[in-house]
């Protein structure tokens, strides 16, 4: 009866219609706004030369940054938490299978901090899939080490070839200045603990260091020799527009940047360390195949990260054509090495 009275009045009926339309448009606007904030920015539409696609580079070694979230705040980070997106597990597996079918031999999982999603379970399932199902010769991880538990090694360690832990200094005060820390926890103590777990569970142990203004004058020789990693990868601090430099960046890394001469002096100081693998900005910028959280290859040639289309949408061969990857530089920097722990003949 009340409804009939409302609709029988032209004025009230008009108000009802306006109110309904208002709610409809508000819902549509809300949905569009959500889509724009959660969907990846589409790369510039570039025409594909089919001959180039047919002769595309083989993705022998791929770095998959499946998450950007991290619990550390390293001031020079060049893959920052611009999104919180992580692919569903089955979609990530589908992409990894596509890469294997295109010739991938080594996968390296990174972030962000790769042990954050599901407290390492998501990562563990990917590691297990790559080794057991895809039977890749090498599966590796780069981590800050803060989230790793011994139970993870017990469950997934057999399927992991190399674990690289990022450590820029053995002085806790320096790590705090860099941002390579979480609260008052000792990054160095954690590093030593993980080294022992790697030995116990037969995982090759590696160290990555970013050389910057806060550690460039240090001598890490004694500590590195004591830890005895299979490789000590030493990077020169690199600026990437939109990541750690520029107006839209989440970091301001300019104060961490060192010169080529400073980097070389650091390398000379550590020339007696046989496992040292140096990587200047020139070597690093174009010699990595990097997949982001949407499984898009990132082209860093112009000093920023320009994404391809996702391999899940267009396939590996088409996407890799826009990666900017320099295979000659990849080989020159020693990107191809003995990367399967079965071939390393390590004494556990």
UniProtKB/TrEMBL annotation:
Q: Which domain of life is it from?
A: Eukaryota
Sorted alphabetically, which InterPro entries does this protein's record hold? Aldolase_TIM, Elp3/MiaA/NifB-like_rSAM, RSAD2, RSAD2/Viperin_antiviral, rSAM, rSAM_sf
Gene Ontology cellular-component terms for this entry are: endoplasmic reticulum membrane; lipid droplet; mitochondrion
A GO term for molecular function: metal ion binding
**Radical SAM core domain: residues covered:** 56-276
- One short Pfam name that applies is Radical_SAM
Species in which this protein is naturally found: Etheostoma spectabile (orangethroat darter)
Q: Which PANTHER family match?
A: RADICAL S-ADENOSYL METHIONINE DOMAIN-CONTAINING PROTEIN 2 (PTHR21339), S-ADENOSYLMETHIONINE-DEPENDENT NUCLEOTIDE DEHYDRATASE RSAD2 (PTHR21339:SF0)
Q: Of which family is this protein a member?
A: Belongs to the radical SAM superfamily. RSAD2 family.
Instruction: Give the cofactors, semicolon-separated.
Output: [4Fe-4S] cluster
List, alphabetically, the SMART domains matched. Answer: Elp3 (SM00729)
Q: Where in the cell is it found?
A: Endoplasmic reticulum membrane
Q: Which UniProt keywords apply?
A: 4Fe-4S, Antiviral defense, Endoplasmic reticulum, Immunity, Innate immunity, Iron, Iron-sulfur, Membrane, Metal-binding, S-adenosyl-L-methionine, Signal
Which positions carry the signal peptide feature in this UniProt record?
1-26
Q: How does it sit in the membrane?
A: Peripheral membrane protein
Q: Which CDD domains match?
A: Radical_SAM
For this entry, list what GO says about its biological process: defense response to virus; innate immune response; positive regulation of immune response
What is the protein name stated in its UniProt record? S-adenosylmethionine-dependent nucleotide dehydratase RSAD2
